[in-house]
Every structure is written in C-alpha cells, then in structure tokens.
C-alpha cells in the first residue's frame, strides 16, 4: 500500500450514514416542528358558527359558552332544559340536553330519556306521559318495537324520581286503559304500577286507595296475567293485598275460565305464591293435558307446592310419560310432596 492513501471499506460508508440518520433525524424533526409553531400558529376554537339572531346562537351564548372548558354536561334550569336543542359536540364536549320531542332517531330519543334527572319539572313529567300515551306511527322515525322500548325506558326513569310524580297511579291507569296503544306498552304500565306500589310499601307511604286502579286489570283479558304476577309478588310485604283486590278470586276465575295459556300460567304461579290450593283439580288436569310447555310446567310445579296424597297418582302418571322435561319436573314435585308429608307426620 502506498503512503498517503487509505482505502475505505464499503461497510464503513454504511456505518457513517446510519449514525447520521440515528442522531440527525430527531434533531431535524424537532427543528421543523419549531418552525411550524412559530410561523403557523393554531387558531383557538371559537365555537360553532351560527346566525347571530338564531335560537341556536342565543342558546349558545346563554347556556353553553359560559361553561366552555368544563368537561361535563351543564345542569340547566328546567325552563332552559325544556327549550334546549341538540347542538352537537364542541368546547370541551359540552352538549345541551335535548328534550324527547326535539330529537328524531331512536338513539337520540333514548339518550334524551336517560339524561333526565331525579327531580323532573312538571313540563318534563308531562313530556314523559305524552310519550307513554302516544300510539306508534311510522312518521315517528322509529320501529314499533323501538317505540315500545322507549316507553319502557321512560317508565324506568320515573321510578328513579326522588318523589313520586303527582297522580302517578291515575296516569299509569290511563295508559293501560288506552286501547289505541300496543299491548306491550299497556303491560309496561301495569308492571311499573306494581313497582311504584312496592316502593310505597317499602317507604310506608302506601294506602289502600293506591289499589283502586290496579284491581281493574285483574278482569282485563289483555292485562290480567301481568297484574296477577306482579301483585302476587307483593303478598309477602302486604298481606292485606289479598282481600283488597280479591287476588285469590281473580286467579281462580282465570284458571277455570277461557283464556290464553300465558295468562293461565300466571294465575297458577300466583296461587303458588299465595298458597291457595283450592283449584288443584283444575291444575292437575292442566298438568296432564295442556299442550303449552310453560303452562304445563307451572301446573306440575303447583302440584308439588300445593298438593298432597291426592295428587301423587297424577304426578306418577306424568313421570311415566315419554317427555323427559315433564317427567323430571314431576319427580321434583313428587319429592316436595313426600318431604312435606314426612314433615307433617313428624309433628
């Protein structure tokens, strides 16, 4: 090799380039970032653009802008809340709370209902009952099932109120008495009536006058199944309920009358709940001959809960049937009867 000349190996070039990229790349990126900040400053979000004379602009200036930067939904006064409109997200996710009637889609209406507080204004309560009493029609922008679902959610919000809305029982009775409404929405009114009764009993604010409306549902073929099941669950908390609404009599009439298997099943379960064995002959016939699975299983369960020696033969007959579902239910019923008989003999 001649003096003064040095050959550079190819891999040494690659190492030099790699070092430049590793150490120089971040510095170059930082330099570009500083230039962007200095020469292209970001404009602050000034909020949505409205026509200054519009209702949206006035609402924004009055309610939304003063709370800008707070990441929460503002608590509006009832009059503001009743007039609020859906403005979208801006200024720290502050969103005006819309009323049920002011939004169109199912999701928006559901969100508006769930946004209701625990102390509703009279206007908001009226809006809820307007919803409950409105029959479904396609121009509402939702399906019939969604409309019923919204009503169920609205009733659920009413149960969360600090105080009962005034005339709540009468209002719910008006809903289930309205034959223009769908069967599910009328049944919801009955179910939630019972929930209000349960809360009133728990809070010791219950009076027998509160039962004056619910008793009418026990003779309504569309509603009596729901009413029987609901009221049957209140018997333990309020024994006087039996006499007040003649629950026993209503259940007996359902079992011996012409009605749907669903309602008859509810009546059987009610008799189990209140310990009424007066209809065991009818129930035994249902346990053997019914073609409805739920009704037949309810009847077999009733034989086990309420029956005695006279029902053993019927249960054995069911056990010998070809259907394992009913045979297994009959075995459970038979065991319950024997356990009860053994306990009685021990005394």
From TrEMBL:
UniProtKB keywords: Membrane, Transmembrane, Transmembrane helix
Keyword Chaperone: no
Segments traversing the membrane: 20-40
InterPro entries, per database record: ARM-like (IPR011989), ARM-type_fold (IPR016024)
Protein name, per record: HEAT repeat domain-containing protein
Species this chain originates from: Rubellicoccus peritrichatus
């Amino acid at each position: 090799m001649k003096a003064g000349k040095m050959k550079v190996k190819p891999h040494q070039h690659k190492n030099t380039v790699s070092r430049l990229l590793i150490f120089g790349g971040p510095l170059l990126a930082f330099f570009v970032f500083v230039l962007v900040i200095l020469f292209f400053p970001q404009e602050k979000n000034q909020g949505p653009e409205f026509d200054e004379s519009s209702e949206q602009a006035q609402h924004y200036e009055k309610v939304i802008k003063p709370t800008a930067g707070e990441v929460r939904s503002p608590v509006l006064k009832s009059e503001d809340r009743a007039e609020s409109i859906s403005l979208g997200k801006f200024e720290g996710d502050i969103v005006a709370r819309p009323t049920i009637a002011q939004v169109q889609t199912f999701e928006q209406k559901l969100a508006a209902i769930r946004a209701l507080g625990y102390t509703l204004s009279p206007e908001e309560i009226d809006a809820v009952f307007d919803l409950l009493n409105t029959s479904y029609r396609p121009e509402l922008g939702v399906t019939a099932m969604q409309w019923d679902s919204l009503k169920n959610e609205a009733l659920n919000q009413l149960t969360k109120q600090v105080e009962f809305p005034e005339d709540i029982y009468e209002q719910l009775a008006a809903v289930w008495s309205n034959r223009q409404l769908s069967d599910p929405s009328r049944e919801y009114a009955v179910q939630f009536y019972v929930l209000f009764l349960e809360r009133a009993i728990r809070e010791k604010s219950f009076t027998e006058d509160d039962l004056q409306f619910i008793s009418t549902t026990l003779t309504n073929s569309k509603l009596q199944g729901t009413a029987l099941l609901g009221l049957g669950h209140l018997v333990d908390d309020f024994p006087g309920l039996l006499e007040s609404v003649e629950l026993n009599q209503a259940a007996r009439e359902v079992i011996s009358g012409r009605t749907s298997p669903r309602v008859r099943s509810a009546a059987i379960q009610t008799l189990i709940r209140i310990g009424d064995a007066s209809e065991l002959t009818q129930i035994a016939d249902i346990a053997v001959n019914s073609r409805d699975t739920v009704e037949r299983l309810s009847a077999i369960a009733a034989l086990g809960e309420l029956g005695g020696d006279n029902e053993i033969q019927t249960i054995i007959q069911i056990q010998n049937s070809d259907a394992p579902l009913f045979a297994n239910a009959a075995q459970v019923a038979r065991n319950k009867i024997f356990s009860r008989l053994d306990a009685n003999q021990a005394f």
